[in-house]
Amino acid sequence: MGSAPQRKGRLYDVLGVPPGTKDEAELKKAYKKAAMKWHPDRHKDAMKEQANQKFQEIGEAYAILSDEQKRRLYDEYGEDLLKALSSGMTAQDFENAVEQQKQQFGGRAGGLGAFPAGAGGMPQGFGNGTFVFTQKGGRTSAHSAGVDARRLFEEMFGGSGGGFSFGGDDFASMESSGGMFGGSGAGSARGMRMDMDMDTDGSFGPFSRKRSAPQPEVQNVEIDLRCTLADLYTGTRKRMKVTRRVQSPSGGLATESKVIEIDVLPGWKEGTKITYEGAGDNYGNVRQNVVFVVKQIKHDVFERRGDDLHATVKLGLKEALLGGKVIPLTLPDGTVEHLKFSAGQVTQPGSRRIVSGKGMLNRKEQRRGDVIVKVDVTFPSSLDPRQAEAIARCF
């Protein structure tokens, strides 16, 4: 004997909005209000399990209703869509499946589950045929729909750094005993049996094509790796602590911390990326690589331009005209170069001195760039009569 069909408006009730609501701003506002109320971290142990379930349902409701295609399919087929999504189907797979049924049965198929005219999930017009929906790999919640409620919450509220350093307890395991339903009714295709395997490509019957379970999409999470110019000049080792979420033995979520050691090589540039595969979140369909991106801290003296280092030194007017000056220049590795302005040599404002082979390492060519020093001649703000007379006599 078939069970009563489930009402299609449940997800709207979960968010507290009228059935058929399409306004994105209204849905988002309702989601935020409900998610804040039922976030598991805000509830004590006695309410934790209920809060976990409510929080998951709220995330599922928003994920479905904020997606135009999923909302349209949910409005028409109700909980049957959620059962399909929780089994690994996409919304497009589900829609394709329904369309194929319609073609096979003269436009009379209405979906995959509870229909008004069919007991126990029998689509109207399937007659006395037995309609079986199987799921491989154990039971799956008919109300999970593949939604990661915590990740959705973090994205909506600007959570911390793409999956790192999240607090809170594990999700309660949500599992139901559904997954198999059948029934009989009046109509055509009498005596026929259809087995629908959710590990197929979404087609049904003898023409189903087997496919492997969908592979998780790998995401890259970028973290700034702040380096001084000295770090990039000589190379160094950085230790970075990251906290990630993983599947716990109980099936929920757990956090673990680890320290990643990064060998910063001489010559690395701003924007250099170092990828550690699988070092980020790893649970369910979530796989993350950690990508460290080099960010150079501004240096007080040098500006890097490609493989060259540029600096500016100041020279007084007297030294610029007469020479006889030595200016020490400390490089990023601590060594000192002495810039000599010989006696009797006039130095023009804006002229440049080049220290060859003391710049940044070009890793490809295995050579260093240059240190290019611009001379800024400082002029006096005024001259007394004696100074003016002396200069006039000279020129």
A few lines on this structure:
This protein has 395 residues and is of the alpha+beta class. Among the domains are: 8-93, Helix Hairpins; 219-296, Sandwich (HSP40/DNAj peptide-binding domain); 302-378, Urease metallochaperone UreE, N-terminal domain (HSP40/DNAj peptide-binding domain, Sandwich). It contains ten helices and 16 strands.
Walk me through the structure:
The protein is α+β, with helices and mostly antiparallel strands and 395 residues long. Among the domains are: 8-93, Orthogonal Bundle (Helix Hairpins); 219-296, Urease metallochaperone UreE, N-terminal domain (HSP40/DNAj peptide-binding domain), CATH 2.60.260; 302-378, HSP40/DNAj peptide-binding domain, CATH 2.60.260. The chain has helices spanning 10-15, 24-38, 45-65, 68-77, 79-86, 91-104, 149-156, 229-234, 317-322, 385-394; strands spanning 130-134, 193-197, 217-227, 236-247, 253-264, 273-276, 282-283, 286-296, 303-305, 308-316, 325-330, 336-341, 352-355, 361-362, 367-368, 371-378. Strands 3, 6, 7 and 8 form a 4-stranded mixed β-sheet that branches. A hairpin with a 4-residue loop joins strand 14 and strand 15 (367-368). Helix 2 (24-38) packs antiparallel against helix 3 (45-65). It starts with 9 loop residues before the first helix and ends with a helix. The model is unreliable at 1-6, 109-143 and 159-213 (pLDDT under 50). Keywords: Chaperone. It holds the Pfam family DnaJ_C.
